[in-house]
């Protein structure tokens, strides 16, 4: 019945009357953690408690350096692997990643691989193009690894991976492009169509607002992005581009729009390139609606990852420093309302446009997940259709497992790589997601309940 409804235009009242009457909201309490080993649960409880301690998050990099000096690299590394690294990272080798993904698939979860590489704004300038070219090779390997996971058992019909634009193009260039894009009547020389044509043809692109060195870097960055998208399309892997700071996002969205112009045609089976929208920004709902309609008018498929946002503290600090308006919502409740409005907008887009519109509900919030599943049922969107869910590896497993067991498509964001590569990345993510980490009390309570049940009641986990 879901598939029949989804492929027809049905008035809302008629649709609700035709839907199965036995839909029930997800229950995140009953036995989600019974599927996991006692060692996994113990580590998760300890690590989440540590990560909810503000001094550890604030001084994480300094504490890591101190630990290496005091204990030595080998012991310090072993402690990290047994704790934070083991909780949030799949591993370093392709085989370790594959084992992690196979474990997730037995629980009904899917992989969303992430290369832990990015360039922080105002960081030291990279020398030449070598650093970005090295990142390009890492991204291409990530595409191949994502594709290889299709051969492992379990659901992998829609393979996805994350893409950090600032691993392939400099933040300085993005800031220059952003300042130009924001000007009234910005020149058409920076249109997505012109950038897409330069990507496809490989011909040099000269933009008047950039100097010779910047134009050269833009051309190299366009080439790198095109190569990743081309390879991902060939390997049937969809690219979810991460949003970053507001000083960079207009440029990043311009580059995504250029990639979408080339790769998101429904004839290509698109969308192959998705953009991320941050609900904590004041203009997100309007921009999301505008972009969705623009894609529809252009005959393009449209892919969205919807998040609350992770750069709140830095965004507000920059606004105060520059004397500009704070771009973020005033509080968490306002962000929740914005997320719900954006979610409603996108679910209606999916309902109207079907498989040419895809959405990832990337949220650790139980109420947002419940709302999404309820509205999907009311709109006739199948659980395993163009709408999927996403959470971080090692966090919010009670929500992920409940979704997976109910038949929804749910992905875990999976960073992988060496300790030296991943630990600084994890610490930055922890600093950006303080509110999420400090709000995991409920997950800690569920972990504690399950561990107490096993230790006192002799319970065992369910075998698969």
Automatic annotation (TrEMBL):
Signal peptide limits: none
PANTHER family the record matches: HYDROXYPROLINE DEHYDROGENASE, PROLINE OXIDASE
GO-annotated cellular components: mitochondrion
A GO molecular function held by the record: FAD binding
Name of the molecule in the record: Proline dehydrogenase
Taxonomy, superkingdom: Eukaryota
EC nos: 1.5.5.2
Assigned protein family: Belongs to the proline oxidase family.
Keyword set includes Flavoprotein: yes
């Amino acid at each position: 019945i879901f598939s029949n409804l989804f492929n027809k235009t049905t008035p809302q009242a008629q649709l609700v009357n035709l839907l199965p009457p036995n839909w029930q909201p997800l229950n995140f309490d009953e036995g989600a953690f019974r599927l996991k080993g006692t060692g996994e649960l113990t580590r998760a409880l300890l690590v989440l408690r540590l990560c909810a301690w503000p001094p550890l998050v604030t001084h994480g990099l300094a504490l890591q350096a101190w630990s290496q000096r005091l204990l030595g690299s080998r012991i310090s590394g072993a402690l990290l692997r047994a704790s934070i690294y083991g909780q949030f990272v799949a591993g370093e080798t392709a085989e370790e990643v594959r084992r992690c993904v196979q474990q997730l698939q037995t629980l009904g979860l899917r992989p969303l691989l992430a290369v832990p590489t990015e360039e922080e704004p105002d960081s030291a300038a990279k020398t030449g193009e070598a650093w970005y070219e090295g990142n390009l090779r890492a991204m291409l390997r990530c595409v191949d690894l994502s594709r290889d996971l299709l051969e492992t058992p379990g659901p992998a019909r829609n393979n996805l991976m994350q893409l950090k634009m600032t691993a392939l193009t400099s933040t300085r260039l993005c800031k220059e492009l952003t300042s130009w894009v924001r000007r009234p009547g910005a020149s058409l020389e920076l249109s997505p169509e012109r950038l897409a044509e330069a990507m496809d043809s490989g011909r040099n692109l000269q933009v008047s607002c950039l100097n010779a060195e910047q134009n050269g870097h833009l051309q190299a960055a366009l080439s790198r992005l095109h190569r990743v998208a081309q390879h991902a399309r060939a390997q049937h892997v969809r690219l979810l581009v991460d949003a970053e700071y507001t000083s960079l996002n207009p440029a990043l969205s311009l580059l995504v729009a250029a990639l979408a112009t080339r790769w998101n045609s429904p004839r290509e089976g698109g969308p192959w390139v998705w953009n991320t929208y941050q609900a904590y920004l004041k203009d997100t709902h309007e921009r999301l609606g505008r972009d969705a309609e623009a894609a529809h008018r252009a005959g393009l498929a449209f892919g969205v990852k919807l998040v609350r946002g992770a750069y709140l503290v830095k965004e507000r600090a920059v606004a105060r420093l520059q004397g500009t308006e704070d771009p973020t919502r005033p509080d968490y409740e306002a962000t929740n309302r914005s997320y719900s409005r954006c979610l409603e907008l996108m679910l209606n887009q999916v309902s109207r446009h079907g498989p040419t519109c895809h959405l990832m509900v990337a949220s650790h919030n139980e109420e947002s997940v419940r709302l999404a599943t309820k509205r999907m049922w009311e709109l006739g969107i199948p659980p395993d259709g163009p709408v999927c869910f996403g959470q971080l590896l090692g966090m919010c497993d009670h929500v992920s497992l409940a979704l997976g067991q109910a038949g929804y498509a749910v992905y875990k964001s999976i960073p992988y790589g060496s300790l030296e590569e991943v630990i600084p990345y994890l610490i930055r993510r922890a600093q950006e997601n303080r509110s999420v980490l400090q709000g995991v009390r409920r997950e800690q309570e569920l972990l504690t309940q399950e561990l107490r049940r096993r230790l006192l009641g002799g319970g065992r986990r369910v075998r698969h």
